[in-house]
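COMPLEX REQUEST
Ligand: heme C
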Amino acid sequence: MINAHYMKGWVLFLVFLFVLSCGTESGKVSNTSTTSDDSAQDSSRYRYEDRYEENEDSEHELKKSSYSKSSHNSGMNCMECHKEGGTGEGVFKVAGTVYDKNGQIYPGTTVKLYTGPNGSGELKYTLEVDKSGNFYTTENIDFGQGLYPAVEGRGGVKYMPTSASSGACNSCHDQNKRIWAE
Ligand code: HEC
Ligand code: HEC
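STATUS: Structure written out below.
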């Protein structure tokens, strides 16, 4: 009887210790969660600012077409929207669309701008035509006295006989007169 009573005392004592330690544990847990709530709020505030700065930057960051990317609105005059104060993201200095002889968009071709006709003079700029048949750049293009466009397809190069002083290629090359290459 005495032993059993003694054991019961120990059991109660151990239960007491257990409850006590649980209390401390849960106290710690709720403390940590308060702290992490605070830091979650902090980091979401920083994330918001980062995002805001990213948007600020992306207005000025270089946007340029490449063979591996795709874009939208093939055939439209990109500069209707991608102009200073326009709705399009990025102010394009040169942009347009290249087609093949069947009137299909022609990805993987290359647009070059020379200072002289038929590939003469200096090659000033090279643009890759993307998966949507489009080329574009926000880099500061100096047209000078005008630049002579050329388009390289898999079957050869086509030269614009006159120089262009505007990079809004699709403003002239609409559905009646596409830029096209062999
Ligand atoms: C009717 C207006 C309009 C026209 C025309 C237009 N765009 Fe856009 N473009 C937008 C808008 C708005 C966005 C931003 C939202 C989105 O991605 O759709 C955009 C976004 C883009 C982007 C993504 C920019 C980035 O890095 O986030 C590219 C690339 C692009 N356009 C290329 C072109 C090309 C090339 C043409 C012409 C063949 C063109 N756009 C014609 C309105 C236009
Ligand atoms: C002011 C109007 C105008 C602008 C802007 C313009 N072009 Fe042209 N382009 C023409 C005319 C006109 C021709 C001659 C078409 C013909 O042979 O009847 C031509 C011909 C061409 C040709 C010769 C082969 C073909 O497709 O007929 C290419 C390539 C070409 N342009 C590319 C471009 C590129 C790239 C741009 C933008 C950098 C551009 N053009 C801007 C008017 C323009």
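REMARKS: The chain has two helices and seven strands. The beta strands are 94-99, 110-114, 123-128, 134-137, 148-153, 156-159, 179-180.
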